[in-house]
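Attaching the record inline, Q. Sequence:
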Amino acid sequence: MVLSRWRYSTSLQGWRGARVWIPDCVEVWRVAEITRDYKEGDDILHLRLEDGSALAYPIEFQLPPLCNPDCLSGADDLVALSYLHEPAVLHSLRRRFLEVNAIYTYCGIILVAINPYKPLPIYEEEVIYAYSGREMGDMDPHIFALAEEAYKQMVRFGKNQSLIISGESGAGKTASAKYAMRYFTTVGGCLGHSSMEEKVLASSPIMEAFGNAKTIRNDNSSRFGKYIEIGFSQAHVTGAIIKTYLLEKSRVTFQVKAERNYHIFYQLCASATLPELQGLGLRGAESFHYTCQGQCTMAQGTNDAADLDSTRHAFSLLGVPEANQLELFSILAAILHLGNIVVRGRDRRGDGCFVEPADEALGLFCTLLGVEASQVMRWLCHRKLVTAGETYLKPLSRQQALNSQDALAKHMYGQVFRWIVSRVNRALRSLEGHHTSIGILDIYGFEMFEQNSFEQFCINYANEKLQQLFNLHVFKLEQEEYVTEEIPWVFVDFCDNQPCIELIEGRLGILDLLNEECKMPQGSDRSWAQKLYQTHLSSSHFQKPKRPTDAFVVCHFAGKVEYQCDGFVEKNRDAVPEELVGLLRASKKSALLAELFLEEGDGPVSLQSRRSSGPRMAGRPSRRSLPSSQKSKKSISSQFKASLNRLMETLGSTTPHYIRCIKPNDGKQPFVFDSRRAVEQLRACGVLETIRISASGYPSRWTYQEFLERYRALVSREELMGTDEKQICSLALERLLQDPSKYQCGKSKVFFRAGQVAYLEDLRYRRLRAACTLLQRHLRGWLARRRFGRARAAAVCLQRHARGMLARRFARMLRRTRAAVMLQKTLRMVLARRSYLRVRQAVITIQAFARGMFARHLYQQMVWHQKAVVIQAAVRGWLARTRYSRLRGAVIYLQCCYRRVQARRELRRLRVEARSVEHYKQLHKGMEIKVIQLQCRLDEQAQEKQRLVEQLSGLNAAHAEEVQCLRAELQQLQEDAARDAQVQQLQERLAELERHSMKSCLGQEVEELRQRLAEVEAMKLQLGEERDALVQRMSEQSQDLEEQHQRAVQESQGLLQELEEERARYQSLVQEYARLEQGYENLRDEVAFHRQSTLRRSPSSESFLGSESSYLSSMSTAPSRDGSDQQAEGLEERWQPVPEGLQPQPSGEVLLNGGMGQDPFEKAYLLLLGQLNAVNEELARTREELRRSKAPVEPEERKPLDFLKRRNIAEMLGLGRSPERAAVDDDLKHAYDAVQVANRLLASQLQEEKQQHEEEVEGLHLNIYSLKQLSQQQAALIHDLQRDQGQEGLQHHVLRLKEENWELAQKLEKQERTTLKLQKQLRAYVKQIQELTGKLKREATGPAQELAASAVVLSRSPMVPSLAGLSQAMLAWRMEDEGRIIKAIITDYKPQSSPGALPDLPAYVLFLCFRHADHCCDEPRARSLLDAAIDAIKRVMKKHSDDFDMVVLWLANTCRLLNCLRQYSQDESYWQGNTARQNKHRLQNVDPQSSCHSLGALSVQLYQQLIRTAEKRLKPMIVAAMLESEPIQGLSSSCPPGHRQSSAAPAHTLPELLRQLGSFRAALDRHGLAPSVGHQALRQLLFLISGTTLNYLLLRKDTCSWSRGIQLRYNISQLEQWLRAEGLQQSGAREVLEPLVQAAQLLQVKKVTEEDAGALCSLCTVLSPQQVVKILRAYTPAVGLEERISPSFISSVEKQLQDQYGGGPSQLLVDTSHLFPVHLPFTASPLHLDELRIPDALDLAFLVRL
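Structure, as predicted:
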């Protein structure tokens, strides 16, 4: 949209240099500058492009549009632009998107959202709370701002709202809907009290699996529209419901190339191997016809198997049972198998078709759905025709059967999707209903492709209806604005698309003709197209294409779209084979299947429709009806039309808010802007229509206050004399603009025509420039005159001083010359005398040393001569003895060598002789004789064969037994593979020697055994080397383990340094337990109210922090400590590592079973304690094993030959078991035994050596395995310790408990000694008590009466001080007085009722009562008193949670009571500041350690409540006081126009904020709180001020300017001055303001060159890189005074910051909810307890002071 003529004048002679927009084929619009004046009637406009080239632009019909001033470019609201047209909108969006990285921009009532394709840190919970409660113009554009506007209008006016989100696929519609949903659930109180958001998020994976698919443009494209209606009751979320539209069912049966079917099918195929899906017959996606048509079965970046797990988990969260899920998957698998059924034609003409009965897909389909295969085969290939009296079966052609098959698949999937939506709504529905609601519509934008069909027609039809609603709403808002401001309203003829809608849905429109054609039996797309041509060619919104095709063109609001008629009639009919549907309905296989199809037949159809088809019919015909008769069934277009009308009614009853999502590029590249694609979407989404409607009226609107602040420089002095802002503005505009039609003055605003703001900006720029020139001229003259005067005065002064200096220098030279002569004379005399004396002394010294040297030299020569004589005598004797010894040794050595040679020769001779054959013959010379004798004996025994037959049975039995024994032994030997294999081989070889000739095999066996022995020796050497390597490896591993142990020790020591961090985590736990306890008390009070019970709660059930307090007390008290120690000992016994690895499950079970009533923290502590003890024991055992393994293994020597003497040879050879064999001749036995002895000797040595080495290797392997297991255990334990350190902070508890254990052990020893002492005294007193019992009874009456009387007197005069020497500093009380004490000093205590009393008086009174219980050794009474006090303080805090003074009062008293318990305890570390009198009042019997823990926890809770109470008062004041107030007047006018601003004055100022801080400081001092605690509280509050201010600075572009930086720096200086005045410089509060200081400096420094970038990076040391870049991108320069920051400068700064701080993720906003760890110091009380004064107003007369 461009303007017909520029508005300022008919002749543009003064507009040379103006910039205009000209069309461009690449960037759509380009900027050019006018180089020559333009006159009316010129045909050419002379321009200069940005690259410097000249251009002659022809003017045909209208002038090119003008550019907006730089101050308006990048405005938050596009309507605020002075020139409203398409290039200005495109340029502003591109500039904000690329330079500022702002993805949101307002355009009137529309929020334009550009998809950045990159995660941005602008959706955290802190951002939600920053936008909550703010007006729409207070913050930068954001979807949260629009959502807050909708939420606020719903709460204020009680009217339903709606958010309409539209855009192309991949533009970010679903993400925008998700962020809006998250905002509503957060501000609506859903996050902390309900699982509604969790259920809605759980529905997302389900809807994506069944409704999303991969398309060419988007890998996760949503193929349906949805309307989410969130119900609210009293501004809280109560439920939700989802309505779906335009489900694309045609995708089930067909996909184009590079696209996929719905995700759920691929998820099932990817998980086909799951056990529960084995019976579905699933395979890979490429095996099914319905999933492989797009030739893209895998999507990049998706894991279908993992997505199915997410889908099933979401089903479980929504309450869908596992059985229903499996039934649903069976139906989906049946759809896949249905697509694989092969339909064959009977002949070439195609008159009939059939399905093979053995078709595998058919069998699986029928099995999964429980239908008969014959029926399916029949109705897939035939159609039933019903006439008046007969029924016929008509065979279908193959193509008709395939169409029927696809229709059934689409119908089944549509019913499944409908059922899923109903189950999701059932889970999200609220039982109590809702009063108001906010709807979120996520639907397609306008679509225009090369091939457009029925789906695109329905989508564009819906967008036409939405655009009409949008136009009416925009027109209505414009009209309401003008009527409210009482401005004359002239009707604007905006583009109404009602004729286009009438063309589509009117009588005889496109839809009517389509429905009529569908009713025709022979209706076709061609005949329907002809009817369209005949009926609508005269319409201006309908055209016929030039090429002869069955298509038509509709002129939509976004452009002309050509639709192909092919498929319109068939898709509109959506014919479903009724017979097949009847089979599915009659199936009893699945209850879900019957539910799906019974719903369709029994009830009305839901209006959730698909893109290609929707729900089928409102009432279903009978099964015997004609399938082709569609009289009772609505067409898809009729259903969609009705559904769309109801949607329009729903949206019409709400207040709509529009979000238009823009896709910046098709490549999904982050922050890349394609102008051509953006313009297409802007034209299609209605943004330019909004601009056109706004431009037709008065688009620029300013309040009178804003106008005066901005253009005060243009107002004359006479006009400023008026008091009415409206009158001043009217007079100024009448003088400046002169044409009344260019502006209108309303009640509270002034309205401008398009271009007038730019004209006023130019006038303001000229006025400011002229003023700056005048100021510069006068300033430069004054500076020059001042510079000359200073130079002249300086020259005169220099001359005077120079002359004086020269005179003084000459006089000084004369004095120095005379003094030099005197010095030279005296010095020469001194030097001469000194030289003479030095020479004389030197001569004397030389003479003395020379004489002494000569004497010593003579003496030394005499000594040396004497010593040389002695040495010569000794040496000569030694040489003689040495020569004799050498000769004697040589003789002996020669003798030995000769004897060794002779012995070796004899040995060799004997060996040769032993190996010779003759030697063997001599050994066995009697063997032949013996053999002959044996043969004779055998002949004799053969004669006795008959006699031996009788003994055969006995011998057979003995032989069988012997065989069994041998087999048993053989089986036993085979179990040991290393030894038995060798033994078995030797036995087999020995048996072979017995069967064959002994002489032929004996030598070979001996040689073979020797070879084996050599092999065994080699193996032994190899095993020895392996053993040495293993020992070395074990030593290395032991060193590694020692190093790991040392590192673990160092890490355990490092835990002590993290005490501050653990304290912070502990305080966060305290805060969390306080919140839980608060909820518990609320529930308990409600139950008590309903039951009307008067039972009193026990102190233990109401103690602070519940489990935390019991945990702390259990660690401090002796009985519970004993129990925990026993449990820890049990854990140490059970928690032992096993060789297979750590198995903590049994220990965990024992721990849980043994500690059912214990606190979870105590259980975790005991578990960790057991692990630490087990690890320590393992380390000790490891060290011992390493020491043993490091010892060298002594190699065993070979067994000597006398091994045979110590062992029975018969036993080795196995001869002992056969006595018959022993009866053979002794000579043969000895000859055979000699060979076996040698063999057995070698075999036994081989087995023993092998067994020895195997045992050594096995032992080494076991050691290595145990070391590895121990290393793994230690690594796992260290990992658990490090993980637990970040989660629970248990290390801190362990260290503290160790200290307490040590202290308790000392106390226990002391108590035992005391007990023994008391027992001895008790035995001595028993006799005295027995003797004096009667006497004591008689004398006890009188003293008791006196004591009672004195007690009454003391009770009646509490203000009377006790004597220091006699007072015990305690208050006597009884157990029944506990309630009265608590009520008097806590519940009903008011400081103002006791003026002059100590601020922490209740703490002292409680401690005096505690001392009395300690004096009486009544520990239960003491603990009951403190528990009751803690419970009462918490009740008082609950009642007065918003009273800052009350919280400070009880925080101070709690700290004082805690310090008193420490000061008067038995711990000597707290006695340093005590006096002698205070030491006398120490506690003697009751250990206050557990009470100190409880009070410490209560103190932390009170401190956190103190901070929360102060934050409630400060938060509404921070932004107004720090950012919006203007202590320096006149700087606000530099704020650029074009930003939505709140016209209201700041609600709070900086002095009010400082007064509030001062009141906090006064309250802290008034109640006697320790100064360090007060400093910590003020530091926390200043951190809140700094963080909140910085967050709003980052979220508001209008605050990032030079003038705002000046204001902010001044406000910070006021805070610093207040800190100095209060003496808080050293409290750490100044450091928390440093980020805000650097942000203010960042707004003021120069930002142009690379040097500026380096200085800026060195300046911003506290701000994160993301915060610095955000401020630079949002910086708005002063118009005419500054230049816009270049993108290259921002990129340079960002790169330097990344190099300096690293590229890790950083947080954009400051976490203002962060609490610094509080440290409660110990401060001893200087007050003596016996000097305490208790006022009468406390009503404590029942307490007796002792």
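The longest strand covers residues 236-245. The chain is about 60% helix and 5% strand.

More tomorrow.
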